[in-house]
Automatic annotation (TrEMBL), chains A, B, C:
<dbReference type="GO" id="GO:0048046">
    <property type="term" value="C:apoplast"/>
</dbReference>
<protein>
    <recommendedName>
        <fullName>Dirigent protein</fullName>
    </recommendedName>
</protein>
<dbReference type="InterPro" id="IPR004265">
    <property type="entry name" value="Dirigent"/>
</dbReference>
<comment type="similarity">
    <text>Belongs to the plant dirigent protein family.</text>
</comment>
<dbReference type="GO" id="GO:0009699">
    <property type="term" value="P:phenylpropanoid biosynthetic process"/>
</dbReference>
<keyword id="KW-0732">Signal</keyword>
<comment type="subunit">
    <text>Homodimer.</text>
</comment>
<comment type="function">
    <text>Dirigent proteins impart stereoselectivity on the phenoxy radical-coupling reaction, yielding optically active lignans from two molecules of coniferyl alcohol in the biosynthesis of lignans, flavonolignans, and alkaloids and thus plays a central role in plant secondary metabolism.</text>
</comment>
<keyword id="KW-0052">Apoplast</keyword>
<dbReference type="InterPro" id="IPR044859">
    <property type="entry name" value="Allene_oxi_cyc_Dirigent"/>
</dbReference>
<keyword id="KW-0964">Secreted</keyword>
<feature type="signal peptide">
    <location>
        <begin position="1"/>
        <end position="22"/>
    </location>
</feature>
<dbReference type="Pfam" id="PF03018">
    <property type="entry name" value="Dirigent"/>
</dbReference>
């Protein structure tokens, strides 16, 4: 095989190996590189019966004995919250929003603070138009938690990846801010 | 390299490039072609306290102050609805169903009509046997909304894609019909 | 083309064809082989007002007229349950847990026992560290039901696949045990 012949084969080989697909047989490739990265913040203000004007989320489900304006005892186990939270580029609640985080979380343990998330980022700015869909477990007390990016639309058409969530701030049981580091490993 | 040698390389190149995988580095390929397309309708009749015989869905969560037979004020913010809706091939509620749309939606904004969806199409007809799983944001007032197909089983084994949703009809707060244009970009 | 030249091309061809990606044009490949398989059990004990110490799940949503300690009439239609269930390697509730199944299920039919699931396996053992995220329809009365693995983190980074669920045992309306056969077809 002459050196003239090797070039296209190497190229093809590279395209197959280093793409985002799995390798047959399930061998892991370590050190994947994201094809797109975003860092965004979102801000959740839970309705507590007194903050209707500012609240961005509301308790809509609760276990027996609990109510819909006070988070339940036992690590809020069974509280389900629907939210429509502003997304910002930095950690300032009053920065101009670039979209909305819309979805659901619920606290799912009686023994520790842990939640489960299913939501979308609905982005609508000069930089990004489209949605990113997330699901996953959120063990709140860990400094970082990884959830799945299961799909996307618009600029994020068919995206998949991992989002690393950090609690950037919280104030009692009313406000919290999450930092979300999105790393997409499948881009179309 | 002789012309005899070029053919298989071109073929391999085509298989890698034009497949549904991401291209390393995240370069976008525009004009993807779906590997499977379906257009289906589903019909939702919300329980309002009087229509138990016909209702296909029920409010199961509501914010403080709301109840489970009347959709809440403020754009129904916080209402969560569980559904088991007939799927039809055309826009007629009384056409023979080809399956059931089963899942959840909830209204997640105090400022506009917008919802979030997580559901499955459970198809059981001569044409299709299997399930398709969807999640995504549904800003109702937009003519079309894109959500993610995050997986499938049976005939839709491992499918991924985009579903474009249109409100095909609605009657007050009791009935609505959605047209769902499913475009799969990953077929196995 | 000499035989020396054929080998790398065949290899590349194999890598492209037999990978986990879709083939352009949507042709199905039958008989896929999983890249990873796991069989796990999880155990759900629903709170019924009397078993607070043992319960691992709680009803947090119910249709009009129902309550949060007794599963609703009409096939539990509209009951939504949040859970944090132990995962074991065998069918014994008292085996050492290898993680927690955390998420949500709800009953979504008035006409038969059927549910919808969205949850994570949060695995934390010497064998596995990471999460697996699932969504899908669960028609309880079928012997086996297939749902989607839509993503994963840690050891299950970016995983996709199918989980086949079987009701391994149940006791009245308080306890059930599910066997979950996880077959991943995309491994990274």
């Amino acid at each position: 095989m002459s050196s003239k012949n090797i070039a296209p084969i190497i190229l093809v080989f590279f395209l197959c190996i280093s793409g985002s697909s799995a390798i047959p047989g399930g061998k892991k490739i370590k050190y994947h590189k994201p094809c797109k990265e975003l860092v965004l913040y979102f801000h959740d203000i839970v309705y507590n019966g007194k903050n209707a004007d500012n609240a961005t989320s509301a308790i809509v489900g609760a276990p027996e004995g609990a109510n819909l304006t006070i988070l339940a005892a036992h690590y809020h186990f069974g509280n389900m919250v629907v939210f429509d939270d502003p997304i910002t580029l930095d950690n300032n609640l009053h920065s101009p929003p670039v979209g909305r985080a819309q979805g659901l979380y619920f606290y799912d343990s009686k023994a520790e603070f842990t939640a489960w998330l299913a939501f979308s980022f609905v982005l609508n700015s000069t930089d990004h138009q489209g949605t990113i869909n997330f699901v996953g477990a959120d063990p709140l007390m860990h400094k970082t938690r990884d959830i799945s990016v299961v799909g996307g639309t618009g600029d994020f058409f068919m995206a998949r990846g991992i989002a690393t969530i950090m609690t950037d701030a919280f104030e009692g049981e009313v406000y919290f801010r999450l930092r979300v580091d999105i790393k997409l490993y499948e881009c179309w």
